[in-house]
Amino acid sequence: MGERGRGGCCPPMDLMRSEPMQLVQLILPVESAHLAVSYLGDLGLVQFKDLNAEKSPFQRTYAIQIKRCGEMARKLRFFRDQMSKAGLAPAARSLPQAVLNLDDLEVKLGDLDAELIEINANGEKLQRSYTELMEYKLVLQKAGEFFNSALSSAEARQREYASHQSGEESLETPLLSELETANDSSKHVKLGFITGLVTREKSMAFERILFRATRGNVFLKQAVVDVPVIDPVSGEKVEKNVFVVFFSGERAKNKILKICEAFGANRYSFSEDVSKKTQMITEVSGRLSELKSTLDAGAVHRGNLLQTIGEQFDQWNLLVRKEKAIYHILNMLSIDVTKKCLVAEGWSPVFATKRIQEALHRATHDSKSQVDAIFQVLYTREMPPTFFRTNKFNSAFQEIVDAYGVAKYQEANPGVFTIVTFPFLFAVMFGDWGHGICLLLATLYFIIREKKLSSQKLGDIMEMTFGGRYVIILMAIFSIYTGFIYNEFFSVPFELFAPSAYACRDPSCRDSSTVGLIKVRDTYPFGVDPAWHGTRSELPFLNSLKMKMSILLGVAQMNLGIVMSFFNALFFKNSLNVWFQFIPQIIFLNSLFGYLSVLIIIKWCTGSQADLYHVMIYMFLSPTDELGENQLFPGQKTAQLVLLLLALVSVPWMLLPKPFLLKLQHSRQQGDSYAPLPDAEESLRSEANHDSHSHEEFEFSEVFVHQLIHTIEFVLGAVSNTASYLRLWALSLAHSELSVVFYEKVLLLAWGYNNVVILIVGIIVFICATVGVLLVMETLSAFLHALRLHWVEFQNKFYEGDGYKFYPFSLAMLDHEED
User: Does the keyword Transport apply (predicted)?
Assistant: First the structure.
């Protein structure tokens, strides 16, 4: 399939057939291979083939370089995370500096990475010490307050006891005085205490567990810390309580320590001595001020380092990604036995031949290589990739086609017709020039600001809407056009092009009936006469008009699809498809539904009252009966008999001859004992590729069954596809009736109350309903139905869509890709 063409500059864009492609072989000296691949990446017109598919990634020549690039990319991602945490963004434009090579950049990134890690580690240690000292200060303050209050309470009780000693003894006088108890050493109880902080949400559970573990032999005192405290372990702000636990004995102490550890309570030492406590608070405050100044200096240093990184981040990131992409391509090349040359194979458009040769020559010159790279075209039976050169206008239409399937190499492209037919069929279902203007204004916003919006990250839905902005603007323009035809502006008719052709015979005809209307002027020049709107005959009239129009449009588009299959057969020189596919298909479709379309046009032109349902049904049930009042033209009965006979003959015409002729062709090829020898190069290519189509055996039964399925599908599809186009009528009717409901039952109803508040509410409801239902949901519904008509009813007549896209190696695409 590959073919040689003249090189040179890009030819004019042609969307009907994909670009002629060629399989090229490049023999690159090792010293210039890297630069050559880089220049070809800048060119973006070569899709390289993987010649080392049998090797694992670790067995390839440049695996070490890719690993180095991956490590550098990891460091750059680390820098980006650190900058985002610090609230910094990479500079929009890197400052101009000397271009670094990969080795220098690796050393520089390694030094910066080590320095930043060290700064972070030191900062974390200092921050942890700072938060611990802050907690320690809180413990000293809160626990000190507790001990001070306990001491003052004890002194008060002692004074009260001393005053009672002078009086008479009473029942409340203790049996043993404190002095006697103090003199008896056997009655001393030694109490210990532990101080610290515990999170407030765990404080109740902490107290309960302590009580149960020690069987109530502890005394716990908690004080609430007013402001959240930064936890030294997690680094997050947490609400905490200061606690003091009094206990007796080592066993109780061990239990309390384990419970503190389980609850994540931070413990701190505390002295009962008031003078020592004051001294410790002073020392802690001094150390906190020192740590604060050290942390501030470290943060400034870290910010300066990240600022320096941010100035060159984009340049470094792009360089690493480009180098990784280049080495990935180099790993796809095979190395010759002498290990002095790399051999590359890939697809490129024929028009790019001269530009590729220039890029290779420039790489040889710039790398000061003694040997020039070799460029040659290979001949192969392998199917080339499909490449359509699109622009920002038609790329969205091409994506609509590609979503169904990528065109086979140089197959007729439905995207050419989709540019017109897709928005037109949408507009047939959406026709309202008021709604069309709303769509147009919304889309113009995207088009006017497309430069700014294209550089921003939009949401998923906004991204899709922005990508299809040129599809939507054509949909809007065609909707305005069909809205003029339907004469609907938010369901309201206007006498835009001339006064109505009808007028009332007398005032009694103003009861929404056309009985009293008479024609007083020339026919309304464009679209539906506004007099039809609001009458009892409006719905039957518009139903008949839109249903017949849908059939005409459907038959026309299906005929276009069959005609495109004829041009495909001519292009690929397949005479069997011309004689035994195109001709019987065009005869069958037009013998039935082409004839129906002609009857519709004749009925419109003549004003006949013939029943077309009756004509089409009895054309099959009783073809020899007289038509009577349903006759639309002389000789109609004979014409119907001939058309019915042609439709019946075209079915076996499609089914039988093609499989037998294919079998005859195959037997002739098998009987040819002698054939011209191919070129050595072509022989090697065909042996290497083992094209499945050229080597698979001919199975007559499979071919016959395939043709049978294809015939049945077309015959049944001709009926179902024609009926499927009636969705144009159904959705147009639904859109029109919804517009009427919102206008009459919301806007006019609110207007009739003569109340400003109700009117404002009604206008708001009308706007919300119009935007939400008609401009969003109905737009999406009509879009999907138009999509189905193109994919199923139109494209299945000629479009195979079993190709694969051309994905060239392009360094320019790296800017738009995520890591």
Answer: yes
- The closest of 683, 32, 59 to 332, measured between CA atoms, is 59
On whether the CB atoms of residues 508 and 516 are closer than 8 A, the answer is yes
Burial label, 326 (beta-carbon count in 10 A; 0-12, 13-18, 19+): buried
Cα separation, 438 vs 775, in Å, equals 8
pLDDT tens digit sequence for 119-174:
999 988 998 888 888 888 888 888 777 777 777 776 777 777 777 665 555 555 55
How far, in Å, CA of 770 to CA of 773, rounded? 6
Q: Residue 315 is encoded by which pair of tokens?
A: 């340049």
CA 475, 476, 482, 483 dihedral sign is positive
Between CA 380 and CA 678 the distance in angstroms is 11
Kindly report, residue by residue over 345-380, the tens digit of the pLDDT. 999 999 999 999 999 999 999 999 888 999 999 999
Which residue bears the tokens 């190696």?
A: 809
Cβ atoms of 223 and 242 within 8 Å: the answer is yes
Residues 6+ apart with CB under 8 A from 400: 415, 418, 422, 471, 787, 790
> E strand or H helix at 223, and its extent?
strand 219-224
Average pLDDT, stretch 36-41?
95
> What stretches of 725-777 show up as alpha helix (H) in DSSP?
727-742, 749-751, 756-769
SS3 category, 177: coil
Q: What percent of the chain has pLDDT over 70?
A: 88
The residue type of 86 is: A
Strand partners, 343: 27, 334
> Strand ranges (DSSP E) for 371-525?
374-378, 502-504, 517-519
Helices (H), 522-679: 538-571, 575-577, 583-589, 595-606, 612-621, 636-655, 657-671
Let me know the angle formed at the C-alpha of 373 by 322 and 686, rounded to the nearest 5 degrees: 95
For range 104-116, the mean pLDDT: 93
pLDDT of residue 119: 93
Task: Give me the long-range contacts of 445-454 (CB less than 8 A, separation at least 24).
Answer: 447/473
From the CB of residue 196, how many other CB atoms can be counted at a distance below 10 Å? 22
pLDDT of residue 455: 82
> Does residue 334 contact residue 52 with C-beta atoms inside 8 Å?
yes
Provide DSSP, 293-313.
HHHHHHHHHHHHHHHHHHHHH
Type of residue at 528: V
Distance between the two ends of the chain, CA-based, in angstroms? Answer: 36
- Contact between 792 and 721 (Cβ < 8 Å): yes
CA 443, 444, 445 angle in degrees (round to 5)? 85
More confident residue, 572 or 537: 572
- In the chain, helix, strand, coil percent, each to 5? 65, 10, 30
pLDDT band at 3 (very low <50, low <70, confident <90, very high): very low
Contacts of 158 (CB under 8 A, 6+ apart): none
Structure tokens at 344: 């590359």
Task: Note whether 376 and 25 are within 8 A (CB).
Answer: yes
The structure tokens listed for 288 are 């906190």
Kind of pairing, strands 517-519 and 374-378? unpaired
**How do residues 273-302 score in pLDDT, each as one tens digit?**
666 777 888 888 889 899 999 999 999 999
Higher per-residue confidence, 491 vs 12:
491
3-state secondary structure of 377: strand
What are the backbone dihedrals phi and psi of residue 240, each rounded to the nearest 5 degrees, phi first? -130, 165
Looking from the CA of 406 toward its CB, the CA atoms found within 13 Å total: 13
The per-residue pLDDT for range 185-204, each reduced to its tens digit, is: 555 556 788 888 888 888 89
Distance, in Å, from the CA atom of 696 to the CA atom of 699, rounded to the nearest integer, reads 9
Three-state SS string over 688-736 comes to HHCCHHHHCCCCHHHHHHHHHHHHHHHHHHHHHHHHHCCHHHHHHHHHH
Q: What is the pLDDT of residue 7?
A: 41
Whole-angstrom Cα distance, residue 382 to residue 409? Answer: 11
